[in-house]
Amino acid sequence: MINSINSLNTLSYTRPNESVSVAAKGVEISYNPQDEMVMEPIAVNVPNIRASNSTLEGENVKFAGKERITPNDEGNYVFTPGTRKFVAAHSLATVQQTVNAMEEKLGSEIHWAFGDKQIELNPDAGIDFNAYYSRDSKSVNFFHGKDPVTNRQVYSGSSGEIVSHEVGHAILDSQRPGYFTSWKADTNGFHEAFADLTGLFMATQSDEVCELAAQETGGDMHKPNCLAATGELLGTSINNKVGRNATGGNYIRNFINDFKWQAPHTVDPHPSGSDPLTTEMHSWSRIFTGAQYDIMSDMVARNIANGMEPARAIKEAGSESMGLLAQAVKLAPQNEITYRDAALLMLKVDAQNGGQNHDIILNNMLQRNILFEGDDTPSDMSMASIVPDRQATITLEGPEFGKFSGAEVSGRVSGGLTAMSGDPGLELAEDMKQLIQNGSILYTEPNQTVSKSDLFDKNGNAYIGVVRWVDGKMTIERNGMIS
Ligand SMILES: [Zn+2]
């Protein structure tokens, strides 16, 4: 086992692990690619991070406000897990590592959607079991709360998966800012899936995590494991707080699932059963994330069949999957993306790389009803084949909109490779009906003061839209935060 870890380090192509080999130089920082429920943190030396003015700063990230941290006695930033200093150092290291890795996969520098070079990091912005990215405040934000069962102080910023998830939102926003104004289930589900997958793929680039997942699964990634479950510690605390298994298990989400795509407008907004699929973006994301996880799992199996040790097979599959997703985003439509678009783009990217994952991608996407019989690698991905986006502004009218009847809403609709060509206003009305029925829009009264915490539902998910009143007129606007 030890030999395989050493060989991983020398064979690694990714920046996070280059950092391990140069740990003797520069500053060491606490990092946990999972969380303290799963494993002990490690110390890493992250490229593009420097200690300056008695604090830490990254090329692409800085602490918000007056947050500062001083080094330990050895001049490093390695701290005891569960402390505020640990959370600050760890979350800063995670943000920069995620940017480093994604820049390598994109093949280009990341410029944040809000225009600044550095995103602001709030490692602990107060009491809550939550985390979010806000373009408006140019920041990623994490919180703490006391688990009522374990009495443990739980910081969302102490999980590598959760920090990478929020940075994933910011990275996708930097590549495709148009997705942030969409009301479409697939586009918003893709944002969540991209964020969850960023957390997953970053975790696969840790030798320690790959070794643990290999021990848990023997290389069969369909067995429960730390990579498939995301946000174990926070998910457990959320369940302990609400007094029931609200997340389906001791995690926030699990990528081992059987969810299949169907036309979003045909989904029951109030399904029965535990952990049912709805078009709420976190719920809906699980179809695409599940498909991607299965693709990665099949790559792991292939790598093992080709003679790789399970841990290395996982790491290589994670790296390759991350590259496919990043490159697909570079080809993606600007303002809307369907899961089918994303799957076709992945086939296209894979074909450009030699096509070794063609069958794995196609079969898993067919299995999920994301692709259909007859779909295959598109020959033409030029802009000419993309249906242009159309803008629509409508007033919601009718009993199906309940108290939202009379609200004005604007949106871009029907972009992408596989767009429908129906009436954009009717399509937008259908999208809004679905979002209102699944509880994704926050209603407010005229003159109501809306605080930041109001913008999250009882499960801690940010509402996608919120009612604003201007001159007595009700409008529904996109929430500027995504959790
Ligand atoms: Zn999210």
Describe the structure in your own words.
The chain has 483 residues and is α+β, with helices and mostly antiparallel strands. The protein is 38% helix and 14% strand. The chain has two domains: 2-367, no CATH class; 388-482, no CATH class. Helix 3 (84-106) links the parallel strand 5 (61-63) and strand 6 (119-122). The longest helix has 25 residues, at 281-305. It is globular, with a radius of gyration of 22 Å. Bound molecules: zinc ion. Zinc ion is lined by residues 165, 169, 192, 195, 482-483.
Helix and strand arrangement:
Elements: H1 2-11, H2 15-21, E1 29-31, E2 42-44, E3 49-52, E4 55-58, E5 61-63, H3 84-106, E6 119-122, E7 131-134, E8 139-142, E9 144-146, E10 153-155, H4 160-175, H5 185-204, H6 207-217, E11 229-230, H7 232-242, E12 253-254, H8 281-305, H9 310-331, H10 339-352, H11 358-367, E13 390-395, E14 408-413, H12 424-437, E15 441-442, E16 465-470, E17 473-478, E18 481-482
Parallel strand pairs: 5-6, 6-8, 15-16
Antiparallel strand pairs: 1-2, 3-4, 7-8, 7-18, 9-10, 11-12, 13-14, 16-17
Helix pairs in contact: 3-4, 4-5, 5-8, 5-9, 6-9, 8-9, 8-11, 9-10, 10-11
The chain binds zinc ion (ZN).
Zinc ion binds at residues 165, 169, 192, 195, 482-483.
